[in-house]
Amino acid sequence: MSTLIAPKLVSSRDQARELTASLPGDLSATVVMVDCSALQPSTPSFVDELVKAVLVDRRGSHLVIRAAPERTVELARRAAQNRGVLDRLEIG
Amino acid sequence: MPAYRNALDAVTLDDVLALDLDSGVAGLDLARIAFVDAYALTGLACFVASAARDGLPVRVVLPEEPDVRSWLSRMHFGDALEAFDVHVVGDLPRVVERDRRDALIELQRFKDAHGSDRLASFVWEWLEGGADGEVVNQLFEATGELGANVVEHAGSPSGGFVTAQRYKAGTPDERIIVAVGDVGIGIRESLRPRYGEMTDDVAIARAVQWNVSRVPDKGRGQGLPGVVDGVRGLGGTVWIRSGVALRTIARGRPTTVGVSRLQGTIVGARLPCRPGR
User: Fold this and answer.
1) Three-class SS state of B238
2) Considering CB atoms only, which of A13, A45, A83 is closest to B218?
3) Which of A23, A60, A82, B130 has most Cβ atoms within 10 angstroms of its Cβ?
4) pLDDT tens track for B120-155
């Protein structure tokens, strides 16, 4: 499992790309957990880019969103639904 | 003398914008203005930046009312006038900048995603504890998404402008206006390659629908609809001005009016600080 820690405030797609930049290009056998315990607000763009970077671009096995605010969870579910990867999203 | 309205806001902004095609001069006549809100200030900056971009000389007549001149000075409107080499009739006074971080965010420019992120964070920290949590988060989301739209889609050589202000502090009507503007290609031109020719009002109406984006990517088209949905859900109002159309969206049916052409897009949100109380 790879673990990423989301900062307190996140808004742009660039920030999602920076957060995931250290991940390998192929995550098909890897679960990625994003620890959102410090996170306050987020934006649809940030969350969509996070889902895209892990589950679409790198074909992650699963993306686990841990301890996220309710709004971020809602955005993650919507992004995963839009991109057809909802079955690989877990809310922890 | 034109019969200007005293208060300058999203709807009345047009009253002071003048483009004299014969002389090729862009003018702002603020002489009889008694109040300027955060949306209108962002619009004034966009008008000046747009004219400068087109190589037009700009002439600005400052308000006669001293309090309004002081407010414009406090909001750093003078920086925009200076940056775009504007001919100014009247003076902006020097004002002592007491700490007003609880009440306003001065007119600021941003040019990239880093700048947009910084402003969204600034808005959140500015508001934290001073309004209901959902309002603070919504305005963070709005600033972040609208700023990102400028950076990613607008093609605005001057970057974007942001202004915010809290009004009627300490009263039941306490509210906040945040506005983000640019002098880029506008919504219609942004959507045209993917969706074809349309008018400005149709383009705005389309841009606030889910999954509509210049970028052909499944997850796009969540930002502006999310802002509209969130602000409206909290009893707020969104104004979107692009090209020759201004759309006002609140609870109930949205309205669109024709306005003079202004290069780029200005989006503003007004939210009550404590909705439902």
Assistant:
1) strand
2) A83
3) A60
4) 998 999 888 889 999 999 999 999 999 999 998 998
Q: Which ipTM score applies to this complex?
A: 0.94
Q: What percent of chain B has pLDDT over 70?
A: 96
Chain A residues with CB-CB distance to B147 below 8 A: 11-12
Does A81 touch chain B if contact means CB atoms closer than 8 Å? no
Q: Rounded distance, CA B227 to CA B191, Å?
A: 18
pLDDT digits (tens, 9 = 90+) for B46-99: 999 999 888 899 999 999 999 999 999 999 999 999 999 899 999 999 887 776
Which residues neighbour B13 within 8 Å (Cβ) at sequence distance 6 or greater? B39, B40, B43, B44, B241, B259
User: In CATH terms, is domain B7-272 a member of 3.30.565.10?
Assistant: yes
| A41/B contact by beta carbon, under 8 A | yes
Rounded distance between C-alpha atoms, residue B25 and residue B256, angstroms: 28
Of the candidates B59, B140, B143, B66, which has an alpha carbon nearest to the alpha carbon of residue B108?
Answer: B143
A32 is in which domain, residue-wise?
2-91
Q: Measure CB to CB from residue A79 to each of B113, B124, B219 and give the nearest one.
A: B219
Chosen for mutation from B119, B121, B178 (greatest number of chain A CBs closer than 10 Å) is B121
Q: Is the pLDDT of residue B1 over 50?
A: no
**Domains: count for chain A:** 1
Its pTM stands at: 0.94
Query: Cβ contact (<8 Å) for B117 and A14?
Result: yes
Cα–Cα distances (Å) from B30 to B56, B63, B72, B150, B167, in that order, read 19, 5, 11, 27, 21
Burial of B276 (0-12, 13-18, 19+ CB in 10 A): exposed
Strand positions, DSSP E, B113-254: 160-167, 175-182, 237-249
Residues in chain A: 92
